[in-house]
C-alpha cells in the first residue's frame, strides 16, 4: 500500500463564526492553524479566505495574500486553493485568487448540485453577525454551479495556464462520470486526485455501502489513472476517513468539513483533527506521506513555481 496523504481543509465557506469559536477567521488565524496542521502531519492544506471583520467567505486575492506567503515560508505543505469559493460567487470571483497565486493545486467541483446547509442554522442559539443566519437558510434554494463549460474553463485557465493540478471533488456518483468524460476527452490528465465526498445534503449520503460503491465505480472508470481520497461531513469525518485508510485511500479532515473531534466535543483547531486521524492510521500500521511524497504521487509542479 502507498503512503497515505492527509489533506486538511482549514476554514472553508460552509461553517460560520457562530457555529464554533475555534473556526479560523483572520489571515493570522488561518496561517497559524494551517502551519500547525502541517506540523501535525497534513501534506496538503486546502484553503479558503474570510473577511477578517465578520468571517464572511471572500474571494478577494488581497486577503489570500495575507496568509499564503506566511504559510509557504513556514511549511513545505502543498497549498491547495479553492475554486469553489463561497455561496453566490461568480466563476470569475472564484478564480481571482488562484489565478494570481498560481498554486500547485486547486479544488474543482465536478458538477452543479443542490448544496443545502440550512439545517445547521437550527442548531445555533446566538448569532455573532447578521449575515450568518440568512446565508445558511437561503441554501434551501441554492444551486452550486459548475457546468461542463465552467469545468473546462477552470482547467484551461489554471491547469494549462499555470500548471496547477486539481483535487477533483465528487459529491455524487454522477460527478465521477463527469470526470471520466473529461478524461476521455483529454481535458484532464492523470493522475487524477479524486476526492469522494459524503454527507452533504444534495450529494451522496454517508453510508459505508456508498463509500464502497464510489470506490468501485472510480476503480472501474479510472483504473490506475487516479489517486483516491475521502472526506465526510460532520460526525462522519473520522469513521469514513478511517475506512478509507483501511482500503488504501487518502484522507481529508479539517474544520471546513467538521467542527468536531469526537461525540459532543468540538475541535479546538485543525491540528487536533489531523493528529487524531494520523494516530488512528498509524495504529493500523499505515504510513503517512510527507509533502514531497504527495507531490510525487500527484505529479505537482513544486512549491518553487507558485507566485506567493
UniProtKB/TrEMBL annotation:
Coiled coil regions, renumbered to chain: none
InterPro entries: Aldolase_TIM, BKACE
Any Pfam family matching the protein: BKACE
Keyword Coiled coil included in the entry's annotation: no
GO molecular function, one term: metal ion binding
Superkingdom, natural source: Bacteria
Record keyword Phosphoprotein present: no
Alphabetically ordered keywords of this record: Metal-binding, Transferase, Zinc
Listed name of the protein: 3-keto-5-aminohexanoate cleavage protein
Organism for this UniProt entry: Roseicella aquatilis
Species lineage: Bacteria, Pseudomonadati, Pseudomonadota, Alphaproteobacteria, Acetobacterales
